[in-house]
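Consider the following input, taken from an annotated entry for Thiosulfate/3-mercaptopyruvate sulfurtransferase (Pararhizobium capsulatum DSM 1112).
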Amino acid sequence: MTNWLIQTEELSTLLENRPGNVVVLDCSWYLPEAGKHARDDFFAGHIPGARFIDLGDISDPNSPYVNMLPAADLFAAQVGLLGIGNETEVIVYDAGYVSCRLWWMFRTFGHDRVRILNGGWRKWKAEGRPVETGESRPIEARSFSARLAVGKVATVDEVHAAVDTGGTTIVDARTAARFNGLEGSGYPGVASGYMPSATNTPWARFFDPDRNFEFVTPEKARTIFEEANADISGDVITTCGSGVTACILGFMIEQLGNPDWRLYDGSWHEWGQREDLPKLIKQSGY
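Applying the prediction step yields:
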């Protein structure tokens, strides 16, 4: 599959036909500092028939770093409980910035039958489309087989080597204030700042608020990367605060024709806590 987006009109038609092999997932999520849980938002309103998936349930429970990719069997078990099998078409949406993370996770575990709802929950609501409240409808669990694909994840050692040797473009999706060290990281005990040679391309720039937060066009995305002097045509590693919004950059890079980008899964949550790794702070704004 190369068309990774589905439009609200197409999804609406799809749901009217009640297909048996399509699962819609609400993957909304909040940083710990927000003090709330997206599951409550799901209960208050979601796309009819959608199921809620908690990022915490499909992250490595044993890692000291947040939101890390779990073992394949854990991911398989969790998505299987949501009625997803290897032939299931998965459509993910959220109310913010997490859908690309789920898109990346499914593909990293060998499942390419996944698309992102363009504009997500915000566009769906703005268009006055049907809304369901409360728990998910009854779900019949299915068997899902997951196997980690090669070349999707960059380890901390690989990123450190890329910083030292150059030749790899490292793009950081965090806000300019967090990247520059002018604002907290969003995680207690983790300082702000950035790794040497990283380029800041804030994730929010890749959504168009004038079009109900659809992704910007590939042409606009290319301009954003060019303005940041980020060469995304070769070896690219994406990073952010905890490996979530970095997937937005990867999604846009892939839309621009480079499917071989890698995600630094530990991102700043790991790098920022490692005393042996170099960190920089800018004294002025973006």
